[in-house]
Specification:
The chain is mostly helical. The chain contains seven helices and three strands, in the order αβααααββαα.
């Protein structure tokens, strides 16, 4: 019984910590003024990648709409989604996760401008 109590306490602490990080990232992202998509689990989380197939098979039976968070939890969701999210939210939107915020730009001229002026935008430390 004590092992179950320790395990459940650790899971609860982890969930609270993830919720805190999601809220902090949401507050940062909301300053940009672009449409936001909040996802409680980052698609590139190592634990999620290992367990994703089990949960995505469950999501098929739960009545979520086509634009719920389950769409964006899949690894490589961009390839399956294609242009649907851009047509719904516009040319720019941000995916907010507990790990990081992802800015998606769907306008070719803006992407070309961002990539050509890369030093002005900087890069994240985790990418180096």
């Amino acid at each position: 019984m004590p092992i179950f109590l320790w395990f459940s306490t650790l899971v609860l602490i982890w969930c609270i910590y993830q919720a805190y990080r999601l809220l902090a990232n949401y507050n940062r992202a909301s300053r940009l003024g672009v449409p936001l998509v909040c996802v409680p689990i980052s698609p590139d989380n190592a634990l999620w990648i290992a367990l994703e197939t089990s949960f995505t098979s469950l999501f098929k039976y739960i009545p979520f709409d086509a634009f719920s968070f389950t769409r964006y939890c899949r690894l490589g969701w961009e390839f399956h989604d294609r242009f649907r999210t851009y047509s719904r939210l516009g040319d720019v939107f941000m995916l907010v996760t507990p790990d990081r915020n992802w800015l998606y730009v769907g306008e070719a001229e803006a992407v070309n401008d961002i990539l050509s002026r890369g030093r002005e935008f900087g890069s994240a430390a985790w990418m180096m």
